[in-house]
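ok, trying the design again with the full structure, not the truncated one.
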């Protein structure tokens, strides 16, 4: 059974390949949803997949890619909507 999470990441997370790294991990683990840069310089991720895969995504997000400096993440768990077919970057 799939789960859904929404993650808000704060810190130096734009312009450091954060969304691309997230997409690569998502594609590898069968996660669908999206990653989006926000005007307040945060990144929002909405992801659906198996719980183990989402846990792996959360571990990645806590560290971020090489040049990111993650200050804080907020994770909200929800029921999966099954409304995504792929993982997209916006």
């Amino acid at each position: 059974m799939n789960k859904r999470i929404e993650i808000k990441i704060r810190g130096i997370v734009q312009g450091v390949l954060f969304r691309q790294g997230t997409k690569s991990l998502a594609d590898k683990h069968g996660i669908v949803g999206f990653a989006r840069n926000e005007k307040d310089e945060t990144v929002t991720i909405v992801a659906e997949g198996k719980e183990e895969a989402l846990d792996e995504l959360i571990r990645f997000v806590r560290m971020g890619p090489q040049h990111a400096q993650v200050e804080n993440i907020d994770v909200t768990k929800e029921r999966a909507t099954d409304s995504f077919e792929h993982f997209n970057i916006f």
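Keeping the full-length input from now on. The longest helix spans residues 51-63.
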